[in-house]
Amino acid sequence: TAEGFFSRSDNSMVTGWETFVQALGYFLNMFFGSAALGTVTGLISAVFLKHFDLRKTPSLEFGMMIIFAYLPYGLAEGLKLSGIMSILFAGIVMSHYTHHNLSPITQILMQQTLRTVAFMCETCVFAFLGLSIFSFPHNFEISFVIWCIVLVLVGRAVNIFPLSFLLNFFRDHKITPKMMFIMWFSGLRGAIPYALSLHLGLEPIEKRQLIGTTTIIIVLFTILFLGAGTMPLIRIMDIEDSQSRRKNKKDVNLSKTQKMGNTIDTEHLSELTEEEYEAQIYQRQDLKGFMWLDAKYLNPFFTRRLTQEDLLHGRIQMKTLTNKWYEEVRQGPSGSEDDDDDAELL
């Protein structure tokens, strides 16, 4: 946004207030446009994989998922929107709806493949980030670095505390002030801000070097200082909670997962039949607002509930592939099966 205003030739004719309003409008258009594009793409993928049954061809099903995963990013970049925001919302929608329309094999394949690719990409980016400290010329300004760190922390506080306060009106498990403080403290910066700093077209080159150097310092500060201090901070606050619980014996000592609030677990295989799903919704009469709308109408519309035949086919497919893998392990690299090795393996 700032780069766009700096490149304009009529800056002298625009007041500061007009510049702020235009920047805010540009930001909102970018945010909601990218979010809408990602959401629509995710919903289209859910409807497509619900009505076109590709469960018997996992490789084709996997390929379609890869296409739908990349599609919102390409469309957003082509429309001059934010590709990162687009795939973020597409991922949220696809994990909630599209994931349950996949066969059990593809569900496992997608999770493990993308998890591996994400880990490799993150490792490469942080390796590049570390090498850039010694590979490129730097322009260091101590006052600029200090002001940037202070404003980054203030900006995160302006986001975390008011939004958490608003969310508490719609949550059964409230976000406590301690949780808010931990979320503010653990705001780590990494690959995305550094990648953005590399794409700034500022002139002269000293400006780009100043922005790049400052970004690297902020990344190192948040990762090494804030990241390293997050767990000790949680332990200190947990000790305080434990002492207060000892004083009040009536309090129930919940697990950390229950204490922080229940979340929807998408790491499981979708094996609910239509009848089981309806029974589950019937039992959960406490749903309100969007969760009730989602469970009652959106989820049945965008996801395909398994029939008993689909469930049986999925289990047979899993068993067949598992037996095939064990068979290849027993045969070994040479393709010959050794009775002694078989006995040892069994």
Describe the structure.
This protein is mostly helical. It has helices spanning 2-6, 16-51, 58-78, 83-96, 104-135, 142-167, 177-185, 191-198, 205-247, 256-260, 274-283, 289-302, 308-331, 339-345. The longest helix is centred in the middle third of the chain and has 43 residues, at 205-247. The N and C termini lie far apart (64 Å). Mean pLDDT is 78; it is low at 249-276.
- How much of the sequence lies in strands comes to under 5%
Rounded to the nearest angstrom, the radius of gyration is: 26 Å
The average pLDDT is 78
Largest sheet: none
Membrane topology: Multi-pass membrane protein
Biased composition (Acidic residues): 336-346
Pfam family, one: Na_H_Exchanger
Family: Belongs to the monovalent cation:proton antiporter 1 (CPA1) transporter (TC 2.A.36) family.
Short structural description:
The protein is mainly alpha-helical.
